[in-house]
Each structure stands twice: as structure tokens, then as C-alpha cells.
Amino acid sequence: MFIGEYQHTLDSKGRIIIPSKFRSELGEEFVMTKGLDNCLFVYPKTEWSILEEKLKTLPLTNRDARAFVRFFFSGASECELDKQGRVLIPPNLRDHSKVEKEVVIIGVSTRIEIWSKEEWDTYNNDDSLSYDSIAEKMAELGI
Known about the structure:
The protein is an alpha+beta fold. The protein has helices at 20-26, 45-56, 63-74, 91-97, 117-124, 131-140, and strands at residues 2-9, 15-17, 29-34, 40-44, 77-80, 86-88, 102-109, 111-116.
């Protein structure tokens, strides 16, 4: 399980260090793709396979389902760590996430999210993001 928040810096070649606590669970090869809210999602191969199977069951006749699958898979890139625990973020994914220099890496249970620090700060300071309201909605879902 991925948990925690870590701050890192993108190097001049577009690489970031993946936190050491995430590396063993992430594995040598993993998938990075466009995430929601202007971040990147990073999945271990096993979790990616589970998600892929779920997405395959979506009806092709549903326009929103097609759009989501296209968004998710078109941005996907198979990645691996180098010997220093770094990963290259492909240019299209850097553009999507607005990652330029300062980066926040968070653990979100089965995936890792990579955010530009500016986007992460904006997300966390959003006045419409009321944790009390979200907690109430989660209670309605039985959580």
C-alpha cells in the first residue's frame, strides 16, 4: 500500500527520484499515465492489469466510457527505475501535469500520484474542497 507525501525536484533530463518506501512495491517496471486533477497516476504492473481488465468491460457504445479509456491509455507509458531510483517522466506527461521543477509524490493506496508542487498547493487550498463535506458523502457510501 502506498501512503505518504514526499517532495522532490525534477532534474534537467526530466527525471524524478521515486521515494525509497515506494520502490519495492512499485517494482522494476510500472505504468505511468495521465491522471485526474492534472496529476500523473503511477501503477505497479499488477494494479495496472486489474484496472485494464475493469476498463475492458466498459461498453464501447458509451461515449463517456470511450473518452475515458482513450484518455487513460493514450497517455500511458511503461517505465522503469534506473539504479539511483529515478524515473524519466515523458514530455507529454510533464505537459499534462505541468511538472517543471518542484514535484510532490503522494501514495494513494494502490497507486502513486505525481503532482507539480504548484498544482498540489492549489488543489489543497481550493475553497470548494471541504473535507467535512467529503467525509459526509463518504459516510453515505458506507465508508
